[in-house]
Amino acid sequence: MAQRLFIYPLYQIGNPQLRIFRPPFSLTLVRPGKEQPQDTVQFRIPMEMTKCDVRNYLEKIYNVPVGAVRTRIQYCTNKKRNHLNQKVKRPDYKVAYVQLAQQQTFEFPDIFTEKDVKSAEGSVEEMQEKFMEDEKQRQKPDLRRGGVTEWFGL
Amino acid sequence: MAATSVGRVLTLCRQFQNAFRISTSLAVQQSALTLTKSQSYLDRLTYPLLSSNWHCHVGQCRPLHTTISRRGLEGFFDIPENWGEATVKSGAPWTAKQLRTKSNEDLHKLWYVLLKEKNMLLTIEQESKRQRIQMPSPERLKKIERSMKRLDTVVKEREDALRLLQTGQERARPGAWRKDIFGRVYWYRFREHALPWYMNKRYKRKRFYTPLFVTPHIRLRLEKHLRAKTRIQNKEREKQTVLQEKFPQIKAQSS
């Protein structure tokens, strides 16, 4: 993203609208740390982007109707030290809170749900799984003892 | 594979839909080539970003729905089949040689495809860090970054060639060789200003000339540099003589 370091051309009243072809900015959709309203989507954006940039980006590239955009810069610590006792800076980042227009809602989905994989009948994996389950059953304590461990006699 | 690839090509970004329909069989051939590259964006074809007048290759494609659900924010996530997988297959990154065969329109579209893919991968990476799970196939990010860099290089080459042919200018941004306060000569790149330079107070503070009292410092700096250079040369020569003594059969290295 920082490969193309350029200064934006000077704008004076009457100049044509600045257009950027092939934008080098990438957005990251993040799960909000604090509870956000249903229509708010939280992004991490590069420092160089503005609210107008975010709005145009989402509308043109992702076709998302954007209502309001608010940004803030998150300062990250410079206090941590590495094994050489040098201060290590965690890079700062800009956060954008985008409210969707047209009364739309967005909920951050759960991407890493474990899928239940049923292995094939009669295969080695199935026998192994069955064996492991039997072992676990055998390890469980006797329920009739009411939670008392085997260490106590009787 | 080519047929399905053709269909898949047409699921590129909505705003390029029209342009794409104009270009005919040539683009189709090219796109078939392009699609064998990054498998990852092949997998993203359940894009609900189609308009209903996309008609040609429906039967050969993966089933697509034309309703725009979630209003495009689904572009930030992988297709639901890949959620929860440990690894996701992806193809090789684009090489500069392959990219040079593509037209400007194709490169433009490819840039946006790569950009959206990159956003998706960054989202997954951040979410995996939050959930403290390993991200599936993190090498995809590197591939995308390299492809984008090479695309940039190719476009820059074309722009340079065009500018050289049309105007004869070697550099896009004008500049000049200037001396700074310390007597060092460097390439100063011009900036755009609203005022002429003689009215710009901040610019005048910069001083593109060397005051006279800096001359002794320049001499000392030159001496230091020459001393360092001679030291390296002498060390190298000594090393060679020692080697010659130990191993007389070695031919003396000419450096």
UniProtKB/TrEMBL annotation, chain A:
Answer whether the UniProt record assigns the keyword Cell inner membrane to this protein.
no
**Keyword set includes Ribonucleoprotein:** yes
Primary site of residence: mitochondrion
Set out the biological process GO terms recorded for this chain's protein. mitochondrial translation
**Signal peptide positions on this chain:** none
Gene Ontology MF: a single term: structural constituent of ribosome
**Bias-annotated ranges (Basic and acidic residues):** 131-147
Please give the residue ranges the record annotates as the region Disordered: 131-154
InterPro entries membership:
Nucleotide-bd_a/b_plait_sf, Ribosomal_uL23-like, Ribosomal_uL23/eL15/eS24_sf
Q: Which UniProt keywords apply?
A: Mitochondrion, Ribonucleoprotein, Ribosomal protein
Where does the record say this protein resides?
Mitochondrion
This protein's GO CC annotations: mitochondrial large ribosomal subunit
Tell me the superkingdom of the source: Eukaryota
PANTHER family on file: LARGE RIBOSOMAL SUBUNIT PROTEIN UL23M, RIBOSOMAL PROTEIN L23-RELATED
Q: Which family does it belong to?
A: Belongs to the universal ribosomal protein uL23 family.
For this entry, the protein name equals Large ribosomal subunit protein uL23m
Q: What is the lineage of its organism?
A: Eukaryota, Metazoa, Chordata, Craniata, Vertebrata
UniProtKB/TrEMBL annotation, chain B:
Q: Which UniProt keywords apply?
A: Mitochondrion, Ribonucleoprotein, Ribosomal protein
Q: Looking at the keywords, is S-adenosyl-L-methionine present?
A: no
InterPro entries recorded for this chain? Answer: MRP-L47_sf, Ribosomal_uL29_mit
Q: A single GO CC term, please?
A: mitochondrial large ribosomal subunit
Q: Does the UniProt entry include the keyword Nuclease?
A: no
**GO biological process terms, semicolon-separated:** mitochondrial translation
- The name this protein goes by in its record: Large ribosomal subunit protein uL29m
